[in-house]
Amino acid sequence: MKKRKQMQNEEPQGFSPPIPPRETVARFRANLDPVAPHGRVNAAVVCSREVLAVATDGTETLRVPLSEIREVRAVAGVGCVFLEYERIGGEAVLFARADARAQKEAVRFARAVNRRLRELAEENGNGRRPESAPERKKQKSRRRAIARLLSMSRPEWGLIAVTVLLFFATTAIGILLPYLNRRLVDDYIRQEIDSVFLAGFIGMVFTILAVHALRVVVRIARGWFLTTAGNRMIVRLRDTVFRKIQSLSIAKVSANNTGELMQRVNGDTSRIKNFLINQLPSLLEQSLLLLVIGVVLFAYDWRLALLILVPAPFVMLAFRTFWRFMRGLFHRRRELNAQGSAVLHDIFSGIRVVKAYGMERREEERFVGMAAAERDAELRQEKLWAVLMPLLDFIMGIGEYVLLYYVGRQMLAGVMTAGEMSQFSSYAGMIYGPLAMLLRLPRQLMMMMTSLNRVYELLDEPVEIVDSKEPKQPSWNGEISVEHVRFGYDGGDDVLHDIDLQIGAGEFIGLVGRSGVGKSTLINLILRMYDVEDGRICIDGVDIRDIPQAELRSRMGVVLQENFLFTGTVKQNISYAKPNATLEEIIRAAKTAGAHDFIIRLPDGYNTYVGEKGYTLSGGERQRISIARALLHDPKILILDEATASLDTETEKLIQDALQTLCKGRTTIAIAHRLSTLRNATRLVVLDRGKVAESGSHEELMEKRGIYYGLVMAQREMAKIETEPSAPLAEKDS
Amino acid sequence: MKTPPMMMGGGMGGPPPFGARNGGISGGGRSGGDGGRRPRRERSLEEIMKTVWLTPENAAFSRKNGLLYLSLEGREIRVSLRRDFPFEELWSYISVLDGEEEEVGMIRSVDLFGDETRTLLTEELERRYYAPVILHIVSLKERYGFSYWKVDTADGKMEFTLHDTYKSLIHIDAKRVILLDVDGNRFEIPDVSALDRRSYRKIELYL
Fold first, then answer.
1. What residue of B is the nearest CA neighbor of A592?
2. Which of A95, A122, A468, B151 is the most exposed place for a label (fewest CB within 10 A)?
3. Minimum distance, in Å, between the CA of residue A701 and any CA atom of chain B
4. Residue of higher predicted confidence among A91 and B54
């Protein structure tokens, strides 16, 4: 931990290659020797508009004109990253190495340089100033998290003010009560009784009762105001977080997994709420009490006050040690508990495998082992708790004995009354509670701050995909042109290098290629789930970045491999993108998708609940519902991403037929691993190494004997093995 | 973690979830176990996509031995009725299925037909979709995840049991609630807010 911090603080000092800052295209700091495995260096890599230069530990070690470089690559090692360039001749040269923290930086550097290289190639030394790389600046908020929380609670300030007042009231009452007790003892506990005395006595008792009642009322009111204010605030915060997450690009949402996002929306905000509603108030109350009692005690008798406070440091110390120790045990127990759950989850999810291999006994042992470890941890913790808690209580009580001694002597000397004694022992008792609590404050505060920072970190995340300020409307014929598109996921190498693709309106394009070649990425770009890095994608001549996102998505329909059905009825799922569709429209869409038949056989027809809690539909049925959804949406551009991959051949045929109707009159782009799926395609586009490798009809590509031919032949071999009698490809070509 | 898709009408442990195919009302053309998977006549895409709207002009319904028959294009076939939207449209969008459970046609609304046929269709539907309307909740006890109900319905006093009450109580809309009991029976409360106060108090926690 410490070492890491040191590394981060390490200021990159030293010499940079003599390149004027204005000329700089990209910079990179490398801290590992490119050649010596454990050599640490301090190297500055700078790329100007014309040269790539490296300065290692103060001396220039490399200077290459960009005109000699074809491409710069960031290559990931394990725990480190390399930068290399490829000469125009084809030979590659390693020129920098850094530890893995610089991974993203290296990729960014390589991209910036490559962009400049392409510019140079295009302009042929035209000398136009290159557009600087769009370095995203993190909107780092300088405002402190707490201040933001306070400003966010502005609408509740009135409520909060009332609550604070009520806090003062409870504290005042807390101080008042022992005083009243003293009066009761001093003034009314004596021998002679007359009517004036009796009236006063009854009045005193009623006063005490009334003050107690008042305290209850004030506490209720305080709780009510606080809960109201806190809950309103948290709902607003949660809403803000949720909206923010929805506005983020898919990249960000999938980078943080669903569980973590749920944790941010629910867990972190509840922790903040818990702190605001439960911990902060009692903390406030206790500290206020501590302060006032302290003042009262010192004002009355400073020696007495000191006596009461003498054990305080020891008590605090004892508590501190105790909590530290217990925290470790708590933590261990929680950890073991989580591990136990994980084991259980693992076994139950894989129960078929467990049973199939007859491994029940071994799994039982695994579980029993976990349970035993948890039991031991819990026992240890509980035992310690049982021993230490009474001890601590005793130590806390010591102060009172000292007090008793002192007060007893005072009383014997006639300086102090019994009532005063009762008042001060009450105060002494009240002082230790707050002290113990204040000790836990730093930890609670830290936990809350962690949550708060996590929430704000998310809120500060820049929205990457923004609508253009000057939106344009394409004519929506469905013509798509992909022009020199280059893209790589954040922190990774380029997935698509230079994609050029023209798709005419109403065309059915089959995207083919090995897995991981970037087919889905291309589709995500067309859907504008991400923005392209270079080049552009146009629909009917309009850059999709100029089309409002809502408009763009409303014209596109997507059928994915794993189609998600929301919890709700079949009808709600079909009409998801068109909630006001008439029942007849819904039926028509379902019929066209071949879904109507099975839907009406469900006992509740279109009103059948599906999704997580509802009825489980088969893969084919879910798929048909999603097709109906897409149909009802009536998109101009249809995207099928492995829409039938998870289905058996028989169902696939059915869905194929349904899809065929869906594709009519629309521009369709389909990805399919099973090539037979694409037999309706007007054109096949083969992607390879991030580029369009082949394009043409099935027959043309087969004749060409290229990548597509290889893929078809391989699948045909598979089909032979499976001896599928109705393998469509075999039918088509033989 | 998805449970594997169930066979149609296949047996399932415990009470049927909402919308399960082996729910209380079993399909006319199916017999128990895996009746739904009986081999069907191959239907072309055209047939699947087409909707035959049944009107008084092209269709005639009749009843023989308590069973419903449809005369269509000179053929007389035994049919059963299905509501496409059983929670929303009680008398419209009715699918008419043959013995093979294939759709023969659809009825846009039973009101299109003459009084006699309309009564026939209405009765047929009411018979198939049986859900007594709860008027008053006499008692409701919850124990070990089951709740035991004694109610007055329009069809008389009834007792039933729900497993996992929250899940067995289905909200159709803001007012309407359907209860699914452990046996697959259904009970309906058309408007919860219209229940008497004592009944409402009993059910309130589960709403």
1. B49
2. A122
3. 30
4. B54
Q: Per the domain annotation, does A575 fall within a domain? A: no
Q: What is the ipTM of this complex?
A: 0.76
Contact A601 B21 (CB under 8 A): yes
State the nearest Cα–Cα gap between A581 and chain B, in angstroms: 14
From A123, A156, A191, the end of a domain falls on: A123
In a mutational test of the B interface, the residue from A604, A646, A650, A664 whose CB has the highest number of chain B CBs within 10 Å is A604
Chain segment A573-585, per-residue pLDDT in tens? 898 888 888 999 9
Return the residue in A592, A601, A624, A656 with the most chain B beta carbons within 10 A, the one to mutate for interface testing.
A601
- For A341, left (φ over 0), alpha (ψ -120 to 50), or beta? alpha
For residues A93 and A161, membership in a common domain is answered with no
Which residues of B are less than 8 Å from A601 in CB distance? 8, 21, 27, 36, 82, 97, 101
* Residues A187 and A290 occupy one common structural domain: yes
Shared domain for A83 and A165, answered yes or no, is no
And the tokens for B37? 């998977």
A268 CB neighbour count, 10 Å cutoff = 21
Per CB-CB distance under 8 Å, the chain A contacts of B95 are 600, 605
Which residue is closest to B6 within chain A, CA to CA? Answer: A616
Instruction: Specify if A663 maps to a domain.
Output: no
Tell if the CB–CB gap between B85 and A605 is shorter than 8 Å: yes
Residue of chain B minimizing CA distance to A571: B85
The stretch A368-374 carries a mean pLDDT of 89
**With an 8 Å Cβ cutoff, are A601 and B83 in contact?**
no
**Could you report the per-residue pLDDT of A475-526, keeping only the tens digit for each?**
888 889 998 888 887 656 778 888 888 898 888 899 888 877 888 888 888 8
Whether residue A139 is predicted with pLDDT greater than 60 in this model: the reply is: no
For chain A, percent of residues with pLDDT exceeding 70: 87
Q: What is the CATH number of the domain that holds A181?
A: 1.20.1560.10
Distance from CA of A253 to the nearest CA of B (A): 21
Q: What is the pLDDT of residue B14?
A: 38
Long-range residue pairs from A704-708, CB within 8 A, at least 24 positions apart, any chain: A707/A513, A708/A512, A708/A684
**Which residues in chain A are closer than 8 Å to B28, comparing Cβ atoms?**
none
Domain that holds residue A19: 2-123
Give the model's confidence band at B138: pLDDT under 50 very low, under 70 low, under 90 confident, else very high.
Answer: very high
In the sheet that holds B169-171, the strands lie side by side as B169-171, B177-180, B186-189
Residue A50 φ/ψ, nearest 5 degrees? -120, -30
d(Cα A327, Cα A336) in Å, to the nearest integer? 14
pLDDT score for B121: 92
> Can you tell me the distance from the alpha carbon of A582 to that of A575, in angstroms, rounded to the nearest whole number?
9
Of A96, A82, A47, A94, nearest in space to A67 by CA: A47
Residue A551: inside a domain: no
CA distance B54 to chain A (A): 14
- How large is the average pLDDT for residues A541-550? 88
Nearest-Cα distance to chain A for B20, in Å, is 6
Q: Fill in the amino acid letter for A469.
A: K
Beta A59-65 vs A51-56: how paired, if at all?
antiparallel
* Number of compact structural domains in chain A: 3
Query: Within this chain, do residues A285 and A405 fall inside the same structural domain, yes or no?
Result: yes
CATH number, domain at A70? Answer: 2.30.29.30
Token representation of residue A33: 């020797």
Check CB contact under 8 Å for A600 and B25.
Answer: no
Round the CA-based radius of gyration of chain A to a whole number and report it. 37
Judgement on whether residues A113 and A174 belong to the same structural domain of the protein: no
A191/B contact by beta carbon, under 8 A: no
| pLDDT recorded at residue B41 | 53
